[in-house]
Amino acid sequence: MNYTDLFRLTLPETALEVTALVVLIIDLGLLRKSSLKLRVAVAALLGVVGCGAALWALNASGGTGYSFEGDLLLAQGGFTGAAQSGILVLTALTLLLLIDSVFTKHVGEYVAVVLMAAAGGLLVASAHDLLVIFIGLELLSLGLYILTAFAKSSGKSAEAAIKYYLFGGMSAAFLLFGFSYLYGLSGSTNITEIQRFIAISGPSPLLYVALIFVVAGLGFKVAAVPFHLWAPDTYEGAPAPGAAFIASVSKVASFALLLSLSFAWLLPNRIVESGQTTLAQYIYSHSQVWSPLAFILLIVSAASMVVGNLAALAQVSVRRLLAYSAIAHAGYLMLGVAVMPSLSGLEVVSFAYTDLWKLAYRSANAVLYYVLTYGLTTIGAFGVVSVVERDTGSDRIDSFLGLHKRNPLLAAVLLVLFLSLAGIPPLVGFWAKFFLFAAVLGVSAGPVPFALVALAIALSAVSLYYYLQVLKRAYVMPAVNETPIKAPAVTMAALLLIAAAVVVLGCFPTLLLVWIGNH
Fold first, then answer.
1. In terms of Cα–Cα distance, which of 374, 400, 337 is closest to 250?
2. Sign of the CA dihedral 434, 502, 422, 452?
3. What secondary structure does DSSP assign to 423-489, as a single string?
4. Element (H or E) spanning 200, and its range?
5. Exposed (0-12), middle (13-18) or buried (19+): which is 281, by Cβ within 10 Å?
6. Which residues neighbour 496 within 8 Å (Cβ) at sequence distance 6 or greater?
7. Terminal C-alpha separation, the chain
8. What are the extents of the domains in the chain?
9. Deepest of 182, 320, 472, 510, by most Cβ within 10 A of its Cβ?
10. What distance in Å separates the CA atoms of residue 89 and residue 86, rounded to the nearest whole number?
11. Environment class of 450 (CB within 10 Å of its CB; exposed 0-12, middle 13-18, buried 19+)
């Protein structure tokens, strides 16, 4: 890969970085003495324009189909392109929620950090090299730490940022240890070369140690148990637009990376045909490496589903409720990642490489469908919380009492979003879970995946209970204060757009699935 190709692949990130500089110049130079409302609007809209430019650059430079061939530093096309497009759309939505916010006077810096963090997310989603993965993760993570601490007048914001930073530093150390062992074993930082080495030479004890370290480091990024302790405080303490960004964009980027790493275990067809290893040797090596790792991921998945849903039952803060809900959703998604490259049930004599890719793509598309729709819904949920919190001064569940009388449109948006998160048809959250669970059972029909899918369905019923606790206060319980809650026009428009998208995608579920598959 030469520098021309690398520049072409990084056009979206370049567009975001240039936009960040333009926002700083305009806000600090031209609009320094203007009103805060004008500065916020201009900075946020410039950020949205930058996301649009990056999306255009992505479509102009990206290809179709996913490739692991050669010495790529960054992949393009396939689920990588779909994930990057999703990151840009979700970033633009979080910037729209910033308009009319009053938690900071440093709006130019805030938007610049969001755009640079989004650029890190794009790198993470497309990274095909260990060094690029780490650089992208650190660029994304540093931005998230700053966004968490941006509400300088809030003690919770500062406390959450410190906790997030400390846990993040520890996870980065685990990830670097794992990466260093993988480099030491294979002599390369390229994912394909590492996978090729493992397929030819077979597993070793040091490889298992390396993979466990990598799982621990990436488990922190997606807030999976037992690496989830940062999430509740961060979701509660961060400014609402920042919390929405953390809950959506970082999850999409992290799961896109997990999908890339999972796909790396599927050898390109030419490697087997070249004679470097036989098909039987590959399947044996694959099962020896993947089976223990898949078992660990399944345990993490089950623990995340159980802890996230049960802990959410005891929450009185809607932000913390959404945090524990995010942990549970990470568990559902980890289930899809864990079984994706599984070869269980496939005999050597009947093994078809193209069939394996079809199964893997089906699982990858289901995981990506889930995380994109979850990110969209979560942004809307935090938008509703921010409006209620601004009016009442609290995010407690009781703050939503009588919301349907105080702001009927806002209550309707809350109803759609929370029922979608619970997986109620015909909303998009139902189809996200349906496609994911169907893909899991389609790849591996063993008793363990079946039991975990049954557990996930049962815990989805538990999640419905705590979502209904909020909706009960919004629609059933009487209001203590019936003063109307006024939502800013731009924020309300964005929330209505998100709610409409959730309904439309639920009524026509294949729209997004076909779009993902066409990348």
1. 374
2. positive
3. T-TTSHHHHHHHHHHHHHHHH--SHHHHHHHHHHHHHHHHHHHHHHHHHHHHHTSPPS--PPPPPPH
4. helix 191-201
5. middle
6. 409, 413
7. 22
8. 3-517
9. 182
10. 5
11. middle
Q: How far apart are CA 495 and CA 515, in angstroms?
A: 23
pLDDT tens for the 519 residues of the chain, in order = 567 777 788 889 999 999 999 999 999 888 888 888 889 999 999 999 999 999 999 887 655 444 444 456 777 767 788 899 999 999 999 999 988 777 788 899 999 999 999 999 999 998 888 999 999 999 999 999 999 998 887 888 899 999 999 999 999 999 999 999 999 988 888 887 887 777 777 778 888 898 889 989 999 989 998 988 899 999 999 998 999 999 999 999 999 988 888 776 655 444 555 555 555 566 666 666 677 787 888 899 999 999 999 999 999 999 999 999 999 999 999 998 887 655 443 433 344 455 556 666 778 889 999 999 999 999 999 999 999 998 888 889 999 998 999 999 999 999 999 999 999 999 999 999 999 998 888 776 668 788 899 999 999 999 999 999 999 999 998 878 778 888 888 999 999 999 999 999 999 998 998 888 776
Please name which of 138, 61, 127, 51 lies closest in space to residue 89, comparing C-alpha atoms: 51
Output the furthest CA–CA distance in the chain (Å, rounded).
75
Locate 508 and state its tokens.
Answer: 């026509």
Whole-prediction pTM: 0.91
Rounded-to-integer distance, Cα 203 and Cα 224, Å? 26
Q: Would you state the structure tokens that stand for residue 154, as one six-digit string?
A: 């809030």
Let me know how long the chain is: 519
Burial of residue 274 (CB within 10 Å: 0-12, 13-18, 19+) is: exposed
Residue identified by tokens 């209505």 is 496
